[in-house]
Amino acid sequence: MSYKTRAAITGVHGWVPEDKLTNKDLEKMVDTNDEWITSRTGIRERRILRTPGWATSDMCTEAVKGLLEKTDTRPGEIDMLIVGTITGDMIFPDTANTVCDKIGAKNAFGYDINAACSGFLFALATGAQFVANGTYEKVVVVGSDMMSSIIDYEDRNTCVIFGDGAAAVLLEARRDGTGIQDFVLRGDGAGREFLHMKAGGSLRPPNAETVANREHYVYQDGKRVFKYAVEGMVSTSQELLRRNHLTIDDINWIIPHQANMRIISSVADHLGFPMDKVTINISKYGNTTAGTLGLCMWDFEDRFKKDDNIILTAFGGGFTWGSLYLKWAY
Ligand code: COA
Question: 37: CA distance to ligand 1 center in Å?
């Protein structure tokens, strides 16, 4: 039987900072408590990058270095590197170029994709096109955010949720039926009102007033985001099932964005999918924005089997959301 050429994930590696910020630590910083955070979000601790002089590119670099070692790939073999992030080292240049420099990927080019919590998903779908159509052989896709750099640790609505981390995957062509089969990606710019950072861009360039007003931090209308997140992840997953002639029983794993344990269980519930086949690591990392899907893959890699049907699904600022269906390649 002959299969068409598809881009497949042939390796995954993650990296998180060692420093932990626990719910107990947060109790000392804002008016909250461990019981509230655990029961409302499922998060017990998150990792915070505190290494002086380090930023998102350094987390990406660590994840990619581990990936290259694991997949026996030399930096010079990488054709393209895409980073999903909203917390790049600088507004420009993009972080992907910095990462290529730091890992010595002399033959690669790349760019960042800003799709917030959907960043990894959008980057993965983008990178896969270059591999599936034969343009490039080895594409690295990274999802990483240093959320601690844009979180207000005086705002209990947001500071309990987010953490720092990075994960990277290698995409290569496969002709054995495995790899990325299909995806449904969506966006609705009207959602920008409910999840954003008010200042620092061209709309409100940074000045003393924006700093004094604490406008350089994440703002979110949590309840609204919650509702749209469940709807968005469920509807795009259902659309994927429908158009690939699958039922939920054909799916071996769902890898959801780790924003809130209640969002994850609500998505699984709506899809009629068992929770023990949903990858969950939110309790130890919180929401690492573009980092979550790759970090889940990294944590659960040894449980996936070749040909497993897997759905990745995410929702984030923009609004951006979507789902991707793949057959695990190893
Ligand atoms: N500790 C204690 N109380 C808190 C709290 C905290 N950390 N954060 C909020 N509260 C309070 C609120 O002030 C509110 O009090 P009030 O009723 O006196 O006004 C009460 O808890 C309920 O707040 P609410 O916002 O309704 O809680 P919630 O159940 O919706 O949970 C989120 C809040 C943020 C955890 C939840 O809405 C969420 O996860 N939303 C999605 C976020 C997300 O996914 N963001 C990333 C992009 S994908």
Answer: 9
